[in-house]
Amino acid sequence: MKRALVFTAVLLTLSMAVSAQEKAPAAYDRIMQDPVYAYLEYSPYKAPTEPCAVPPKGYKPVYISHYGRHGARYNYKQEGYDDLKAFFEKAIVAGVLTPDGRALAQKYLGAYKYFDGRAGDLTPLGWDQHYGIGGRMYRNYRQVFRKHPHLDARASTIQRSIMSMVAFCDAIEEQDSHVRIDKETSESFMPIMNPHHSNHPFSESVRGGKKPYGKGWMKEVKDLKARTIRADEFLPRYFTDLDWVERNFGKTNLELELYFLMISTACTDVPVSFEGMFSPEELYGLWEWRNYFYYQKWGPGENGTNPAFLLASLLLDDIMDKADEDLASGKFGARLRFGHDTPIAMILCLMGVDGWSTPAAHPSDIKYFYDFTNVPMAANLQLVFYARRGAPTLVRMMLNERDITLPLPGENAPYYRWSDFTSHYRTVTSAAKSMIEDLLK
Hints:
Elements: H1 3-14, H2 27-33, E1 60-69, H3 78-94, H4 99-115, H5 124-140, H6 142-146, E2 150-155, H7 159-175, E3 181-185, H8 190-193, H9 201-207, H10 217-228, H11 231-234, H12 242-248, H13 251-265, H14 280-298, H15 313-329, E4 332-339, H16 341-350, H17 363-366, E5 380-387, E6 394-399, E7 402-403, E8 415-417, H18 418-439
Parallel strand pairs: 1-4, 2-3, 2-4
Antiparallel strand pairs: 1-5, 5-6, 6-7, 6-8
């Protein structure tokens, strides 16, 4: 049997496919109501306001396993800020700006000092996001921290992840002067904290476009990009000569750079905003293309042909291994991990949560069930464990502090037997690792 068919078959056994009709309305309606929804992974974190599900009678929280994405950051690359600065300076000299274009250029050039040298850094908003999440964890699960058990926090080696860890832990330690959290970062943690950026040979294969996946999917992403991003309609508001723009920057590249400028600035506290550059319809086109890109790169891919998310088995095994050890010892209160967005998307896909693992045959279907907006800045997974004397341990899993449904026996859902969890997902990670080994042959 061909390898792609084998992969598809295994994927379907690991996930619970859901039809588009069973999911939420298309993102188009949400973006028309709130354009910020189109910011995807740059979206601001929204703390829950709804009450959580009440645990079964007699159960109390005893342990927490957590993985959090870093908080809000500046734009990803300094080159983005620098290239825009040089381009706007050149456009002013060339006289190719409309009145709105001149206003935009002057606004950006005046704001550049706030961005220079800060690309990728955690912003004050990002600090506040993790400080808030850490504080709520302590208040919501005070029993876990009451006897001051061992608490362990680890971060990826990236500055914004380390600072997010510090903010999160500060919030807990400031509420209880007796709590101490061991904090550490190391390259040795990277296969867990950010599997696809580790030195794992499968990660290198995926990132390098080598076998088993290759780059065939990139043409489909490029085709959707051409259909959804219409720079010839957007840029005349700001430029009088689009041929000049194409020669000096690239029309589509410029529209994307302005989009990233707008959504990344919304993550900062700089005294300037670039909101309003795009209509809701234009934002929807950007959202659909980028959401599809993430589906193809870190999700199941069309027809379930993308094995990249199998790397999340490293993180899922770490969560289960450490939880089993810590629950047996009775000494650990929490394992806190701080990393990035794609491991969250990958592990949700591997675990068959909601629409994250649903294969699709056509790009137009994907927006109904796969939504990377659900991995905003400071996104997090929390597994909270509950115990009752003489009863099996239960676990409750949350995405962004909200309960999610797992493909497990659910008489007490969203509270599941930990034994059911490990029985099912040990099989999943074992299959994933076997597939990785086979795909690397």
